[in-house]
């Protein structure tokens, strides 16, 4: 540090001498070089801003190197050659030092932060954008800001700059579209009737690794490391406790990578990152470990119907394991699927059990003779993707969630309008997830994966691994109904590995696991802790109040309207910290609402009685036939049809 400081002083002295001797035109040329190479990249503590001519960031150096770059920019302004601007006054120099202090020592990442004592708010609001606007004379584009943070290929950088979207997001969409084309090719030319499962496993795995390398570069090695460590635990650990060790190792490695990405490299970046695929791989590995444990250590009488169906009776080979975790259809955005369903898809046996049933439950030779085509469902889902993307790009900047905590907005806007704005802001945010998950579902369907039997009219269903049901989300009349239709495969994973196996307070344990799995931002934990209270309060209301509104259709319609509005407000209130990420903005939002829903949930739980979990389970066992009939009408997932749908009544 001392050496770097000494070099800093000597270098500054020499540069001042140069600026006093050389001609004005030469000084201008030097400034242009410094503007291009010195400040084009966002500075992190201990990272150099000096870049090569290619614009790619070099490896981090000492803190002194970053200080040197700052001094060089200061000298440029002192010499008054930066766009012929006059030398800054003493007050302006003080503001510049405060801005650099905000960048290096407080938030360090350019997010909105509160001004410290003695600072004006303008110094600390959107530091990164103001820094770029002050230096360049205009605000740098989104593509420019995120180019340095993209660890994948830069082949599509020109497209990123044209459409003004982050390069990593452009890479993600391009890879998903490429995967869609490969899925069609995979289904036609590598059909199970034309090639062996070995070839299908190899091709699916290699294509997956290629997409990972294109999107994330060398960070994709984490996928192999995580998978390799977990497979070693499966092989060498005893079967009795293998699933527990595997769960701990896999989740710990994911959390370690999330901590590194968030607090070391890039806090607050809402963009594609390598931990996203790792979250899906974590689900697959832990599910596989529990399914192997169930299949090799338990008798059928000890398993639930779902666990019996999912149980794995043979340890997968390394190729089968890697293909399941890293296949090109789900490497970037999932969704999670069971190993048995994936194996049946690879071997071409996924259609056979379902060919023997139609709308009447009888064998129909027509369906046995021809394989159902996913063409119509794929086209429909791609249209949904296009509409979702258009809506998101049109509304995301018009209705930012951060505006809900703006001081002027909170002080000047009536509370009921604040509620409406929050709902609209969350409504504008959801199409992003609709686009990503629906596109991922379409890719799997295009490859022939996701067939789930037939509808009553005889049309094929391709929702085996669907991750959401949009209409059920937007018109949900209960908190649980919303969660059941949002990120479906993750909800099933949480249920199978935690809720059904946890003996003590499974609801709280499930929400805590969900928070840990999502990441290390404090806002995630605030969201899921609030979700526990919301779930308990909603359950109490449903059990104690809903029966009074079922006496007539008109009463039920009134109840549905009121509960729909309440559900949307509760979801928006709960999820706000998930979007705001940091503790300060999240608590500021809750304070602006006076923690009203927290207090209301607490009061509801204390006043209204809630049935114990064991009593609920006993009541469900007393009426299996009624629940089974309900399951047939709302059948959404083949592996949970006969044992999970009845839980939705609670």
TrEMBL record:
Region named Disordered: 87-116, 354-375, 614-650
Biological process (GO) annotations held by this record are:
lipid modification
Quote the protein name from its UniProt record.
Membrane bound O-acyltransferase domain containing 2
Basic and acidic residues compositional bias: what residue ranges? 617-638
Chief subcellular location equals endoplasmic reticulum
Low complexity biased stretches: 90-101
- Please tell me the species this chain comes from: Sparus aurata
What residue ranges are annotated as transmembrane? 170-190, 202-222, 242-264, 523-541, 561-580, 592-610
Which GO-annotated molecular functions does the record name?
A: acyltransferase activity
Which InterPro entries does this entry report, sorted A to Z?
A: LPLAT_7/PORCN-like (IPR049941), MBOAT_fam (IPR004299)
Per UniProt, the keywords (alphabetical) are: Acyltransferase, Endoplasmic reticulum, Membrane, Transferase, Transmembrane, Transmembrane helix
Q: Look up the record and report any one GO term of the cellular component aspect.
A: endoplasmic reticulum membrane
Keyword Membrane recorded: yes
Keyword Nucleotide-binding in the entry? The reply is no
Q: How does it sit in the membrane?
A: Multi-pass membrane protein
């Amino acid at each position: 540090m001392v050496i770097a400081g000494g070099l800093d002083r000597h270098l500054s002295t020499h540069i001042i001498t140069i600026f006093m001797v050389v001609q004005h035109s030469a000084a201008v040329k030097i400034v242009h070089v410094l503007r291009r190479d010195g400040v084009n990249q966002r500075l992190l503590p201990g990272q150099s801003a000096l870049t090569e001519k290619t614009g790619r960031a070099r490896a981090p150096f000492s803190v002194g190197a970053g200080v040197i770059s700052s001094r060089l920019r200061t000298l440029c302004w002192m010499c008054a050659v930066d766009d012929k601007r006059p030398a800054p006054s003493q007050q302006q120099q003080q503001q510049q030092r405060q801005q650099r202090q905000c960048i290096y020592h407080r938030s360090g990442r350019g997010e909105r932060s509160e001004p410290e004592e003695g600072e004006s708010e303008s110094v600390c609001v959107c530091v990164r954008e103001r820094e770029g606007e002050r230096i360049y004379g205009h605000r740098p584009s989104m593509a420019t800001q995120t180019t340095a943070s993209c660890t994948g290929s830069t082949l599509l950088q020109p497209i990123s700059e044209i459409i003004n979207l982050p390069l990593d997001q452009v890479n993600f969409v391009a890879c998903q579209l490429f995967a869609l084309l490969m899925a069609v090719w995979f289904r036609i030319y590598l059909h199970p009737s034309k090639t062996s499962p070995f070839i299908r496993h190899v091709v699916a795995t290699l294509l997956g690794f290629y997409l990972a390398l294109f999107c994330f570069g060398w960070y994709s090695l984490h996928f192999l490391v995580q998978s390799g460590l977990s497979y070693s635990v499966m092989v060498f650990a005893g079967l009795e406790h293998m699933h527990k060790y595997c769960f701990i190792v896999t989740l710990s490695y994911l959390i370690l990578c999330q901590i590194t990405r968030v607090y070391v490299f890039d806090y607050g970046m809402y963009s594609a990152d390598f931990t996203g695929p790792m979250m899906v791989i974590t689900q697959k590995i832990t599910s596989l470990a529990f399914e192997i444990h169930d299949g090799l250590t338990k008798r059928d009488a000890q398993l639930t119907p779902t666990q019996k169906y999912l149980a794995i009776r043979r340890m997968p080979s390394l190729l089968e394991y890697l293909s399941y975790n890293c296949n090109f259809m789900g490497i970037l955005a999932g969704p999670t699927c069971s190993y048995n369903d994936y194996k049946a898809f690879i071997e071409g046996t996924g259609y056979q059990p379902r060919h023997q049933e139609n709308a009447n439950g009888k064998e129909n030779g027509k369906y046995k003779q021809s394989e159902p085509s996913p063409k119509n469902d794929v086209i429909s889902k791609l249209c949904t993707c296009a509409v979702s993307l258009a809506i998101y790009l049109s509304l995301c900047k018009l209705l930012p969630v951060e505006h809900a905590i703006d001081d002027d907005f909170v002080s000047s806007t009536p509370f009921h309008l604040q509620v409406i704005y929050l709902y609209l802001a969350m409504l504008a945010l959801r199409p992003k997830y609709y686009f990503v998950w629906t596109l991922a579902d379409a890719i799997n369907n295009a490859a022939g994966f996701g067939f789930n039997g037939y509808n009553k009219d005889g049309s094929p269903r391709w929702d085996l691994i669907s991750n959401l049901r949009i209409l059920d989300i937007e018109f949900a009349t209960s908190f649980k109904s919303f969660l059941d239709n949002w990120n479906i495969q993750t909800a099933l994973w949480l249920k199978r590995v935690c809720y059904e196996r946890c003996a003590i307070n499974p609801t709280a344990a499930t929400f805590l696991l969900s928070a840990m799995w999502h990441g290390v931002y404090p806002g995630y934990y605030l969201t899921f802790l609030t979700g526990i209270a919301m779930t308990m309060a909603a359950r109490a209301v449903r059990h104690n109040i809903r029966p009074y509104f079922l006496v007539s259709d008109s009463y039920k319609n009134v109840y549905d309207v009121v509960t729909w509005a309440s559900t949307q407000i509760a979801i928006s209130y709960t999820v706000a910290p998930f979007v705001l990420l940091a503790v300060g903005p999240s608590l500021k939002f809750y304070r602006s609402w006076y923690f009203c829903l927290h207090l209301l949930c607490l009061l509801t739980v204390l006043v209204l009685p809630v049935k114990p979990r064991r009593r609920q389970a006993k009541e469900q066992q007393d009426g299996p036939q009624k629940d089974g009939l309900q399951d047939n009408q709302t059948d959404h997932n083949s592996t949970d049809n006969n044992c999970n749908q009845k839980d939705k009544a609670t």
